[in-house]
Amino acid sequence: xxxxxxxxxxxxxxxxxxxxxxxxxxxxxxxxxxxxxxxxxxxxxxxxxxxxxxxxxxxxxxxxxxxxxxxxxxxxxxxxxxxxxxxxxxxxxxxxxxxxxxx
Length: 103
Hints:
This protein is mainly alpha-helical. Helix content is 94%, strand content 0%.
């Protein structure tokens, strides 16, 4: 706090000098620098917001694709189970048919 106070005192002294035109020019230059920095900060925040929105959209798309993949995987597993059961049942029927046909 003491360092800031000494800086404020120096700034107050430099701007309270009687050479008003130069002081106003210096003050105006510093204010323009502050304005430029603030505009840049606001632009950076807006760009971060856009990036976050894009990331949120990608996350939602990934969630949707994951749900679709899970649904497709469950469907394929059920189809595979049905094919295996059908093949086993068909094989069993063939064995029974051959057993009764031969004997």
